[in-house]
Amino acid sequence: MFFFWALQCNPVLFTDVFKFDPCTAGQNGSLFKAGATLPRPDGEKSESSIPSDAGNHASEAIPTLDSHEEKCLLLKLDAVFVPVIMLVYLSCFLDRTNIGNVKVAGMPEDIGASDAESSTAVSIFYATYVAFESPWAILLKKLTPRVVLTGLCVLWSLTTIFSGFITNIGGLYATRLVLGACEGGLFPGLNLYLTVVYKREEQARRVSYLFVCAALSGTFGVFLAYVLLKMDGIGGYAGIFSILIGLLIWFGLPNDPTNASFLNEREKEMMQIRAKQRAQYMGSEEFSWEEIRMALKDFKLWISGAIQFCQDILLYGFSTFLPSIITSMGHSSIEAQYLTIPVYVLGGACFLTLAFVYEHLCIRGPFIAFANIFGIIGYILIICPTGNGVKFFGAFLCAIALNVNVAPHYRRAAAIGFQQTLGNTASIVAGQIYRTSPYLLGNVFSVSALGLAQLLILIKWLYIRRCNMLKEQIANGEMQDKRRVKTGDRELDFKYHL
User: Fold this and answer.
1) In what way does this protein cross or attach to the membrane (predicted)?
2) Is 286 in a helix, a strand, or coil?
3) Which of 160, 278, 318, 371 has a CA 20 to 30 Å removed from the CA of 170?
4) Alpha carbon 72 to chain centroid, angstroms
C-alpha cells in the first residue's frame, strides 16, 4: 500500500503487537523517561534499555500535565477533529464502494459490461491506489495537510460526478483508475495527521472511528443508492457530497494542530508539551535503511501482514458485493439496497463496542479470533442450501466479523506500509472471486481465509506471549540478555499486546 511512503515518514505509531503498554505505565499511562528504571516484582530496579541521550528531547525535563486538564483537552480535540476526519473517510469509502450498489441497479447492462469486466473494474481501482500512496504522502510533508487532503477530496468528488456520464466499459475503467489515484493518499494522510494530534496510546480509539465510518458508508451508501434509483439519470451527482466535505477539510483541519485557533493559550501550551512527550518515543525523523531492514526481518510483521490479507478478503469482498449477494437470494435491486442497512448498522455497533472494550483490557488477539467465529458461521449459512431468512441472518454475522477486524494494527513506518500493501492485495483478489451469482467461489474463498486467519492469530499470539515472557525473565535477572538488537520494540520497557 504505502510502503515507500512509510520509508519517508518515521514517526508513525504502532499498536497491538508493537506497543508500549499504557496499562502498566502508571496512573496516567505516561511513557518511561530516558534513563528510567524498570520495576521488578521483588521491588528492585533494573536499568532501562533506553539510553539517557535518546531522542532530541530525552535530556530535557518535560513537565507533566494534569490528568483532568489533559482529559478536557482531549475532549475538545475530539469534538473538533474527529467529526471532520470521520466525514472525510465516510465520503472516501462511499465513493469507493458505490460500484457494488450501481451493479445491482443495472449499470453493467447499461454500458454493456460483462460480469468479468465489472469485477476487473473493482480490482483496477487498487492498482493506482497502491501506486499513488507514496507520492501523495510525500507531498503531504512537502506541502500541507490542508492543501493535499482538500485537493484529493475535490478531485475524487469530480471523478464520481463524471462517472454518471460514462457510456462504456472503458469509461468505467478510467474513472476507477482516477478514483484510486486520488483516494490513495487519504488513509496515510489521515493517520499521519493523527500522529501530530494524539499520543500513541490515544490513537487506537480515534482510528477505530475511521472504520466505523466504513460501516456507516455502507448504510449511507445504500440509502443514497435507493434514492437515486428513484431519480434515474442523476447518479453521478452523489459526488457533490464529497465536494462539500473538501470544503470542511480546508476550514476544519489546521496545518499546525498545536496552534489551532479554537485552542486557548493554556491549551496551546499543553499541546506543545504533548508534542515533546511524543518525540520521546517517536525517535528521529531521519530516514534509516537499517531500521527498514530490521522491520522487514521481523517475524511479527510477516505474520501480521498475512492475517490482514485474510481479514481484508472479507472487508473488500463483503462490503463491495453485499448488495449482489442479497440479490442472489432472490430480492430485487431496490430491496437489496435497503436490506443492507441493518447489516452495516449492526457491524458498526459491534466494532465500536469491542474497540472500547479491548482498548481498556489491552487485549486484541482473542477478540479478533472471537469475531471471526461469527464470520465463519455467517458464511456457512450463506453457502449452505438454507432459506433466504437464514442466509440473511448469516450476512449479519459476517458484518460482525468484518467491522471488528478492519482496523489495521499500526506499528513503525515500514511495518505499517508493508502490512497495508498486503491488505490491499486482498482487494484485487476480492474483485476476481465475486464474479457470477450465487457467488459460491467468493463466499467459499472468504470463509477459508477466515479459517486461515484463525490459525495465524493463534501462532502470533503464542509468539508474542513468548517474547513477553523472555523480556520479563531478563528484567527479573533470571536470564542473561544475549539479544543483538535491544532498541525499538526490543526494549524491555515495551510490552507486546496479546
Assistant:
1) Multi-pass membrane protein
2) coil
3) 318
4) 26
